[in-house]
Specification:
about 200 residues; mainly beta; Immunoglobulin-like; 5-stranded mixed β-sheet; about 45% strand; disordered N terminus
Length: about 200
């Protein structure tokens, strides 16, 4: 057991704790044993950590899983979407699990009618939250949208993502003809292509 010693001096009474060697050897600490990779490839996300109590001899017990935040590289690149006019659509620059937190600040900008990552071409786009909703989508909504996610306390940019949005006219005919062929028509088309290849 620990022996409490009192050292007296003229102006103070400091306390000194002396512990037996056997008691020190039986102490344990909680340490990180394992962790998953970050749930995202860019910006803020989550990871799972395994924490265990560990004795001085290396034995483990009382292990628990804990979810903690992680931060991947800030640059996310350009994401393309093509939407028929009149359909609802939304852009989100943050994972659903992180949208409710008040730790982040969002800044949106738009390059109208262009698919680009040239920051000179972007103009401010007023939207204070992590989501931009189009309901419905209009042809004038086409362009590139840039979202910057910043830490509210430091204003450091921890994520930047570009969304290239193409809006097509609803009256346009779908040019993916294979999508409308029956199985028999697809087999016949493949046989015809095969015979053409053999003849050359």
């Amino acid at each position: 057991s620990c022996i409490l010693g009192v050292m007296t001096c003229a102006l103070c009474l400091p306390l000194v704790v002396l512990c037996d060697k056997e008691e020190l050897s039986s102490s344990q600490v909680r340490v990180l044993i394992n962790a998953t990779s970050c749930s995202v490839t860019c910006g803020p996300g989550f990871k799972l950590e395994e924490l265990c109590e560990m004795g001085t001899g290396g034995e483990r017990w009382g292990c628990q899983l804990r979810r903690s935040r992680c931060l991947a590289p800030w640059a996310c690149g350009l994401h393309h979407s093509t939407i028929p006019a009149g359909n609802p659509f939304q852009l989100s620059c943050l994972e659903p699990e992180l949208r409710d937190t008040e730790d982040y600040l969002y800044t949106w900008r738009r390059a109208r009618g262009l698919i680009t990552t040239n920051d000179v071409l972007f103009q401010p786009f007023h939207n204070p939250g992590p989501i931009v909703e189009f309901s419905p989508t209009q042809e004038s909504d086409a362009g590139t949208y840039r979202c910057d996610v910043q830490m509210l306390k430091t204003l450091k940019v921890i994520k930047r993502v570009y969304f290239g949005l193409r809006v097509t006219q609803k009256s346009l005919v779908d040019i993916n003809f294979d999508k409308f062929l029956t199985l028999e028509q697809k087999l016949a088309a493949n046989e015809e292509l095969g015979s053409m290849d053999n003849s050359t």
